[in-house]
Amino acid sequence: MRAGKLQARIQIEREQEAVSDNGLVRQVWLPVLTTRAEIKEATTTEFLTGQIEGNQNKVVFLIRWPSQPISTGDRLTHNGAVWNITGLSEIGRKRGLEIRAEAVA
Q1: Residue 45, by phi and psi: left (phi above 0), alpha (psi -120 to 50) or beta?
Q2: Smaller CB count within 10 Å for the chain: N or C?
Q3: Is-above-0.85 flag for pTM?
């Protein structure tokens, strides 16, 4: 993973409960990690096997190994857009992380 390709700034957020002053409990998204990422398009194999189905709302983000654990319950924000994390894959031996995400409608 080359540093020059990590041009996109992303933020990983986790949903947590927050209690307001009047005692109401609501779900809020709080930032967990802000890092640089490389954005990759879907591979030819994914197009041929029909996993993408022409939907351009799916993308892959490549980041260096994160200092905080990330799960599919988290979400990602990039340039004001919100993405649900649908899959995570380790790159090498904790060298990096491949994050598959789908845009929130």
Answers
A1: alpha
A2: C
A3: no
